[in-house]
Amino acid sequence: MEDFTGLFGVDVAVKKLRPDAEFALSNNTFIEWDCPNYSKPPTWDEINEQIEKDKSVINTSIEVD
After folding, report:
1. Considering only Cβ atoms within 10 Å of each terminal Cβ, which end of the chain, N or C, has fewer?
2. pTM (2 decimals)?
3. What is d(CA 50, CA 39) in angstroms, rounded to the nearest whole number?
4. Looking at the chain, which runs of residues are DSSP E strands?
């Protein structure tokens, strides 16, 4: 899996949730979905939860010298 450390957003969340999937989005609709293990696209609730997790990791991992 690619390293998405420090990044967040819809594309990053989808890649974290379905690492092997190839996809295209138009607004909030998956217009292409190709996943080798035949999984369905993540729901927008799943995507939003992943984005919030990614943001919290960034906010809590900042070191102060």
Report:
1. C
2. 0.79
3. 17
4. 22-26, 29-34
